[in-house]
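User: Sequence in, structure out. Go.
Assistant: Echoing your sequence, followed by the structure tokens.
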Amino acid sequence: MDKITGSMEVLNSLQTTADIAGLDQASKELYKNKEVLAVILKGVAREFESYTYKEIMDFIEAESITDDAEVSPSRTNTRIHGDDKEFTALNEKVSFFDTKFRAVNPELSDLEKGILVNLHVDVEPQKTYRPGYPLEKRGIYYLARELCAQLSLVTSTTDYGYLEKCYSIWICRDDIPKDEKFSISFIEMSNTKNYGNCHPAKRNYDLLTLVIIRLGDEVYQESKENPGKDVLEFLHAVMYPHKKEFLDTVKKYIDFSQNQELWKEVDRMCGLGESILLEGESRGIKIGESRGIKIGESRGIKSGIKIGETNGVTRSAKVFKAIQAGETDNNVIAALCDCTVENVVKIRKEFGI
């Protein structure tokens, strides 16, 4: 399976959300990572279906990823800087796109010839599919605002040919009708009827696509026949408090074992320990010897894993370094790292290395 080499940032984000239901501000930070966005785009955006996750990551413009672009009328172009994002003007409700970014449209761009056409994407994780109004209508409104935001001022000389396609992707977790659980809907503009000899080019009207992703159960209901299986499985893992198999699911799509920056950081475990060390359950699992790694003691609903004593962390760092240096024999690694073969096997198994 196509995999992405995971970054330090996505590792930290994944662990930060370990005990969180995938919906508060800490969790939404996860959707700012290109690795996560690449998995979503490959699963739901037609333009990226034939590309690898790595290629899709390269298409995403990292500097464009933001959560401070307003949806509000007349101010969609506004970016808010500083701590106070919740302000109002003219008694107008202020709302923000959860995660908004640009990505190169590979169907229409030709970078060798200097032709760059973007896709404008909005990702909206939602707790409920039934907020009291049709979510589809809100999605269409967001798309309209995305499209309007591309033209800051309309004049008699405005060139509408510069308008670029917009995606609004809604990931709904709860309150899904039983027969609609683990489903995806694609709602887009189409040319439904023509009179006479006319053939409108699709690229001129294919500007709005709304994607509604419905999860709906803490237990993932796998459907091998579902074309959206991969993105549904991945999002189910990150949208609910992490299960025992969480890391195994994520590792199907994001590979952390080859990340060189990750290896360099292992010695001091700055944030990394809270990101990946052995997936530990939030209510406490002890691994290794009594002076080794301690995972557990949940710090509350918004906290991650607490990494214990330094000796255990150092031992894991030595194992990582031995493997990085090319050593493959578990007995040799155990001797080099002053630990048991069982500890080496467990660390390798947990990290997939």
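User: And one key feature?
Assistant: The chain has twelve helices and ten strands.
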